[in-house]
């Protein structure tokens, strides 16, 4: 079941001209707080004459202000018998190998088929998962994008959730990703420090072009170069939405398969066109954290999915690269 958003439209009267946009909308939508309205703007849901505007915009007479308010989420999640690959499990935490195509929790019209629904079936509706995140996000401490696969940490108790959330916030959790980039990135290693913010014109995207974005840092190492492609490892030092995808797109080297950030749907190698990957070539290969109760260091690795291994092999054949050198690098992620 999906829920529809509400849409409102206002014409700015002459007497309200010159007001800040957020203050104008507070007067028109008294049921919404000013902070809620500002959040809608950050999400790109407020337009003035068809253009997304910030809270500080001064409205003019006759301007049309359009607001989209997303539908409230459903009150809870129903358990679904969806298979899960569990990489690590004890009474406090679990680490799941999330497949590409699976959404972590309900939202944006996706109410079923989520990892939360699978977790509820696997661990039960009672005390098998933490409740800190609310009824829609039991156990969820952090997220992976829908088309990103790999290791994701789950809290099974409230105490574990609170400790893990602190460690994520304090950047004590180590997360290593493997990505195939479209393009020849310069150098063998580097650090990208570009702010990440919501793209005000396309709200499904983030951008590194707004100065008021949140600080973000990605450290990377090149592991393999095949033709016009580079396989890299990336360590997230911050956990912004779409961070790796945004950062490498900003360098002109989008993640293969990531059409939202500039990658072609199908890659070409010489005269050969590779079949579409139908996902992003981005995989959370390793997560390391301090156990929230025992203080023991836990490191969990998620093997590279078969479709990504196969894609690199196809790429290597098309580029006439040495298969032994490709196998030697990929072996580390299997």
CATH architecture of the largest domain: 2-Layer Sandwich
SSE string, helices as H and strands as E: EHHEEEEEHEHEEEEEEHEEEEHH
Span between N and C termini?
38 Å
**Quaternary class:** single chain
Mean pLDDT: 92
Annotated CATH topology of the largest domain: Pseudouridine synthase
Structural class: alpha+beta
Q: How many extended strands?
A: 17
Sum up the overall morphology in one term: globular
Percent strand? 25-35%
Overall helicity: 10-25%
Give the domain tally: 3
Tally of helical runs: 7
Q: What is the gist of this entry?
A:
By secondary structure, this protein is of the alpha+beta class.
Which short descriptors sum up this protein?
17 strands, 9-stranded mixed β-sheet, Pseudouridine synthase, 26% strand, 334 residues, Structural Genomics Hypothetical 15.5 Kd Protein In mrcA-pckA Intergenic Region, Chain A, 7 helices, alpha+beta, 3 domains, 4-stranded antiparallel β-sheet, globular, single chain
Task: Describe the model.
The protein is built from seven helices and 17 strands. Helices cover 20% and strands 26% of the residues. Helix 6 (306-318) packs antiparallel against helix 7. It is of the alpha+beta class and 334 residues long. It is globular and about 75 Å long. The protein has helices at 21-28, 34-42, 115-123, 158-169, 243-250, 306-318, 323-330, and strands at residues 6-11, 46-48, 51-52, 64-69, 86-89, 93-98, 149-155, 174-182, 189-193, 197-198, 206-207, 217-226, 229-236, 268-269, 272-273, 282-290, 297-301. Strands 5, 6, 7, 8, 9, 12, 13, 16 and 17 form a nine-stranded mixed β-sheet that branches. A four-stranded antiparallel β-sheet has the order 1-4-2-3, with no helix packed on it. The chain has three domains: 6-69, RNA-binding S4 domain (Structural Genomics Hypothetical 15.5 Kd Protein In mrcA-pckA Intergenic Region, Chain A), CATH 3.10.290; 86-169, Pseudouridine synthase; 174-333, Pseudouridine synthase, CATH 3.30.2350. The model has no long low-confidence stretch (mean pLDDT 92).
């Amino acid at each position: 079941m999906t829920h529809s958003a509400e849409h409102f439209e206002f014409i700015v009267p002459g007497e309200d001209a010159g007001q800040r946009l957020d203050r104008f909308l507070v007067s028109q939508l008294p049921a919404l707080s000013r902070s809620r309205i500002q959040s809608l703007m950050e999400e790109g849901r407020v337009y003035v004459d068809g253009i997304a505007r910030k809270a500080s915009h001064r409205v003019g007479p006759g301007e049309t202000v359009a607001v989209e308010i997303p539908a409230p989420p459903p009150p809870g999640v129903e358990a679904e018998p969806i298979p899960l690959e569990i990489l690590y499990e004890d009474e406090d935490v679990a680490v799941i190998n999330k497949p590409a195509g699976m959404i972590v929790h309900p939202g944006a019209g996706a109410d079923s088929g989520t990892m939360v629904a699978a977790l509820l079936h696997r661990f039960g509706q009672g005390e098998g998962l933490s409740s800190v995140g609310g009824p829609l996000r039991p156990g969820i401490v952090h997220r992976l994008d829908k088309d990103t696969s790999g290791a994701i940490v789950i809290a099974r108790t409230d105490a574990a959730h609170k400790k893990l959330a602190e460690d994520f916030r304090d950047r004590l959790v180590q997360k290593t990703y493997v990505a195939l980039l479209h393009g020849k990135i310069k150098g063998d290693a580097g650090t990208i420090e570009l702010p990440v913010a919501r793209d005000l014109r396309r709200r499904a995207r983030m951008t590194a072009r707004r100065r008021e974005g949140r600080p973000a840092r990605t450290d990377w190492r090149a592991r393999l170069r095949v033709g016009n492609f580079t396989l890299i490892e990336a360590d997230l030092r911050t956990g912004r939405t779409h961070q790796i995808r945004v950062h490498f797109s900003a360098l002109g080297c989008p993640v293969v398969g990531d059409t939202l950030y500039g990658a072609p749907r199908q890659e070409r190698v010489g005269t050969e066109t590779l079949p579409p990957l139908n996902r992003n070539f981005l995989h959370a290969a390793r997560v390391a954290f301090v156990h929230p109760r025992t203080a023991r260091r836990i490191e969990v690795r998620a093997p590279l999915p078969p479709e990504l291994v196969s894609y690199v092999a196809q790429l290597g054949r098309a580029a006439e690269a040495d298969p032994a050198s490709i196998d030697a690098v990929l072996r580390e992620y299997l």
